């Protein structure tokens, strides 16, 4: 197995990506990378949360999701000690310490540090609710609200 792992690692330095998706032409160094990617096209979600029954295409995404239920927040801000469950959330938070808010709402006087936060804010003005419960049809403006709602169906508090 060690030799196999080493050979697979060496391939990543060659620049060759011999495993190509036949749906979108995205290419990968390793076969398992292609197999995981193909789940984006098939919708296959073999990793299921035991708390809320949500499915995930990859095990590491499930492990990150589980932090919602456990409350684990292993990533800590060195400036203010605020803790986060995802490293990406910490990185976004660090922008807040600069005070810069370059994304301005054209409907009100609010401005934001991230473009995606402005986009989410715009739903207040548009009334858009893109996240729909597959069990009862109720729609939500934010993904976390849908996730919280799904806990009602699973019996979790």
TrEMBL record:
It comes from Meganyctiphanes norvegica. Belongs to the krueppel C2H2-type zinc-finger protein family. The lineage of its organism: Eukaryota, Metazoa, Ecdysozoa, Arthropoda, Crustacea. It holds the Pfam family zf-H2C2_2. Residues 19-46, 47-74, 75-102, 103-130, 131-157 form the C2H2-type domain. InterPro entries: Znf_C2H2_sf, Znf_C2H2_type. This is Protein krueppel. GO terms for biological process: segmentation. GO terms for cellular component: nucleus. Its main location: nucleus.
């Amino acid at each position: 197995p060690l030799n196999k792992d080493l050979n697979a690692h060496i391939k990543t330095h060659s620049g060759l990506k011999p495993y190509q998706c036949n749906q979108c032409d995205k290419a990968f160094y390793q076969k398992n990378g292609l197999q995981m990617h193909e789940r984006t096209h098939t919708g296959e979600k073999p990793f299921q949360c035991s708390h809320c029954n949500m499915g995930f295409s990859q095990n590491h995404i499930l492990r990150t999701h589980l932090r919602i239920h456990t409350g684990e927040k292993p990533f800590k801000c060195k400036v203010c000690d605020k803790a986060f469950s995802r490293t990406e959330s910490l990185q976004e938070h660090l922008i807040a310490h600069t005070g810069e808010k370059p994304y301005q709402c054209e409907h009100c006087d609010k401005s934001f540090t991230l473009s995606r936060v402005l986009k989410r804010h715009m739903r207040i003005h548009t009334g858009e609710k893109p996240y729909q419960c597959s069990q009862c049809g109720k729609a939500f403006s934010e993904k976390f609200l849908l996730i919280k709602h799904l806990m009602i169906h699973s019996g979790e508090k």
